[in-house]
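# step 3/5: fold
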Amino acid sequence: MKPKNTQDKVINLDVVGNFEDRNYEINLLFRSFSDLTKTLSAAKSSLDDGDDNQALLNYHEAAKIFDTLHNTDK
């Protein structure tokens, strides 16, 4: 069965409003994940090179990223 008119098929969505909120969250997650992976990579490289102090500083920086996102208990 077809709808009697085409307006029966139309769904009202606030695409722009939904996109802005979701875009912000996705961008925040991307930046945080990117920073985290770079920091952990640098920490592992420092640890492999035998520079324990630099590795510790990098791991501390990674912990601060979790703190910024309020994920310290994860």
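# step 4/5: annotate
The two ends are 52 Å apart (CA to CA).
# step 5/5: archive (pending)
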